[in-house]
């Protein structure tokens, strides 16, 4: 997107010549801009018409000193899988999107059990929902992930059937 975004996460060498990931202090702000662009694009595709109307009327008639209205994405999705990078990132997203602990459970449990597994965490989170028999026919699931450069991408799934507890899953213990 721009130089600041590009430099927010990148591979660099340290003083000893070892390569590693460098994360700048700008990453949270840059990530916020990427998230805003992503959900602004996604909103009209998934939010109920009543919520879209509420958002646009607020946008047009809001006084400058008031906070902008954040649409209620809980009306569009039964489950949310957010890239589990850190507790701070999950806390910030929960706060800004006004998600309940139930919506955040899969992300938090994935971070707790597997740590930061990068973009694959959204798949561990979906597996968590399936292993706990949470996905029912008609449920909509929002997977949202971030990447270097800085990118933010969403995938929306709709369950075509009730999902039974799988026999094999990273969340199902193997019998002894």
Automatic annotation (TrEMBL):
Residues 79-158 form the Beta-ketoacyl-[acyl-carrier-protein] synthase III C-terminal domain. Keywords: Acyltransferase, Transferase. SUPFAM superfamilies: Thiolase-like. It is an enzyme of class 2 (transferase). It catalyses: a very-long-chain acyl-CoA + malonyl-CoA + H(+) = a very-long-chain 3-oxoacyl-CoA + CO2 + CoA. The keyword NADP does not apply. Its EC number is 2.3.1.199. Pfam families: ACP_syn_III_C, FAE1_CUT1_RppA. InterPro entries: 3-ktacl-CoA_syn, ACP_syn_III_C, FAE1_typ3_polyketide_synth, Thiolase-like. One of its GO terms (molecular function) is fatty acid elongase activity. GO terms for cellular component: membrane. The keyword Ubl conjugation does not apply. Pathway: Lipid metabolism; fatty acid biosynthesis. It comes from the Eukaryota. Residues 2-63 form the FAE domain. GO terms for biological process: fatty acid biosynthetic process. Belongs to the thiolase-like superfamily. Chalcone/stilbene synthases family. This is very-long-chain 3-oxoacyl-CoA synthase. The lineage of its organism: Eukaryota, Viridiplantae, Streptophyta, Embryophyta, Tracheophyta.
